[in-house]
Amino acid sequence: MILLYLGNNDPHRHAFEQLFHTLGQSVRIIEDTQTLATVKELFEQKDAQQKPYPLPHPIMVMKDIDDETFTTIMEAIRSHGLSMQRKAMWTEHNQHWTLARLADEIEEEHRYFDDLNQLYSFFQESNQKKQDDYTAESWKQYTGVLIALYLEVNKEQPSADRLKEMLRQAQQAQDALQKKIK
């Protein structure tokens, strides 16, 4: 079964409903008045209407969906010109969370991976820079910081706060690079 939150008045609601029907998947569309119910209550359809609490993004929560079915669903969504960026599987751990809390966790995860990708972008950009274009001292500082950050991020996954600090350090090192005067 699939829980699907699209927000009120989403123009793609009917397309998603038809898509899941075609795939033979049971789907339950979740409204703003249901987002404070637990994931378990929503899957068991034991939720009660509450004060509307809109979520910032659509979300899809799946239960008892294997990898092959998940891949089929995602390919069908893409092939129909639809998108679903925030998705989760029902777990023993998250079943007692409200849908709103699960959405918050997914948002935090997206922010984390955006930050991680940004840090890796610093590493990639450093490979495009030419040492001869910069002063020896600023290049030494820059490469020292980036190498230390690279080793750290590849040794163990940093916390979200540490990752933010690592991004700040990478930006600061890049900003401190000084071009040689020719």
Give a description of the structure.
It is a single chain. By secondary structure, this protein is of the alpha/beta class. It is 53% helix and 8% strand. It has helices at 13-22, 39-44, 67-79, 99-128, 136-155, 160-176, and strands spanning 2-5, 27-30, 59-62, 87-89. The chain has a four-stranded mixed sheet with strand order 2-1-3-4, with helices on both faces. Helix 3 links the parallel strand 3 and strand 4.
Which regions have little confidence, pLDDT < 50, spanning 5+ residues? Answer: none
What is the overall pLDDT average? 94
What is the end-to-end distance?
66 Å
- Topology order in helix (H) and strand (E) letters: EHEHEHEHHH
- Beta-strand proportion: 5-15%
Work out the number of β strands: 4
Helix content: 40-55%
| Main sheet overview | 4 strands, mixed
SS summary, helix count: 6
Shape call: elongated
Strand order of the largest sheet: 2-1-3-4
Cα radius of gyration in angstroms? 22 Å
Q: Structural class given helices, strands, pairing?
A: alpha/beta
Name the descriptors:
6 helices
Task: Present the secondary structure layout.
Elements: E1 2-5, H1 13-22, E2 27-30, H2 39-44, E3 59-62, H3 67-79, E4 87-89, H4 99-128, H5 136-155, H6 160-176
Parallel strand pairs: 1-2, 3-4
Antiparallel strand pairs: 1-3
